[in-house]
């Protein structure tokens, strides 16, 4: 059972944590949604496809949102407790920062397990599903993009539709001209038609009703005497599949190492798929493990930046902490790129930065929880903040935007 202290600490950090994760996911998905609309707008069920693709992107963005939200929740939650002198009251009653951090460390362990599932299983499957949908959208038959009264080209076919009902994929009064080169030409008119999806058929079927067809078995020559005779016919119903089957079947999952789960990565380290190399497989495995383990370090890293004297420069401390986290993430990202090429070892470019960050977080946490004097970094950040604030105020007074105190 959680004690009162634990419940109070979790309550203080939960609100900013949830808010940061929600806002972050919404902003990331909204930015991607604009680009997806450019790709899918006008296609069959375009808005439904967009939201399906956004759902597949949620695990991808969760991998970034979880550590960022945890850091912001810790910074804002413990900063508010420190500014309201709650941490001073706890320490006066014999409850130190190390005890206050206990529920946060347990929370970080829980988030690391969630992150393990996200990067280890959810992301590979949703990444493949997202790529599959993108493939289907970009290879959709051009009939889905048709507009009323506009000539359009689909392979060898040129067509125009007089009326269009997108809800039923139906159209009225259609003209189609199919230029087959040396094999001749086909000209088809119909009073109405529709695109029909047939179970077990990878291609959409063009269904036409009450029409006429004019066919030439070869291209007409310059000599009228040798011109081929056309074949004219009427039909009540005509069905023909559109496109090529090979263009509508997406490849199986696993050609990219990022589409493999962690057990699959481990099993195929020495036998990578055709789209990957042994170095890229190892780099991907190391990166995922580091992404999970780095979440366990965040409480020890963030808490010392959040607590401090009431007059300390909290904005600069927060800024330094966020820059540190972003820089670490970028170092790991670039290190994984270098490790995929096989030129450097992942132990050097990824595990060494993780070790340095762990030592730095441990030193800061020990200084904040088990020593009386403030460490050098705290003092330096406060001095930089005081100097910057003084320069800003003098500049504002010179411009007349602020009066001297």
What's the gist of this structure?
This protein has helices at 4-40, 46-83, 86-92, 97-100, 102-138, 262-267, 278-306, 314-340, 346-370, 376-398; strands spanning 152-154, 157-165, 170-179, 185-196, 205-216, 231-241. The chain is α+β, with helices and mostly antiparallel strands and 405 residues long.
Overall tally of domains = 2
Q: What is the makeup of the main sheet?
A: 6 strands, antiparallel
Element pattern in H and E:
HHHHHEEEEEEHHHHH
Count of alpha and pi helical runs = 10
| Unreliable sequence segments | 244-248
From the helix content, strand content and strand pairing, which structural class follows? alpha+beta
Q: Record the strand order, biggest sheet.
A: 1-2-3-4-5-6
Q: Roughly what fraction of the amino acids lie in strands?
A: 5-15%
CA radius of gyration: 32 Å
Task: Give a verbal description of the structure.
With 405 residues, this protein is of the alpha+beta class. It has 2 domains: 4-138 and 253-374, no CATH class; 144-245, no CATH class. It contains 10 helices and 6 strands. A 6-stranded antiparallel sheet has the order 1-2-3-4-5-6, with no helix packed on it. The model is unreliable at 244-248 (pLDDT under 50).
List keywords for this structure.
alpha+beta, 405 residues, 58% helix, 6-stranded antiparallel sheet, 10 helices
Helix/strand layout:
Elements: H1 4-40, H2 46-83, H3 86-92, H4 97-100, H5 102-138, E1 152-154, E2 157-165, E3 170-179, E4 185-196, E5 205-216, E6 231-241, H6 262-267, H7 278-306, H8 314-340, H9 346-370, H10 376-398
Antiparallel strand pairs: 1-2, 2-3, 3-4, 4-5, 5-6
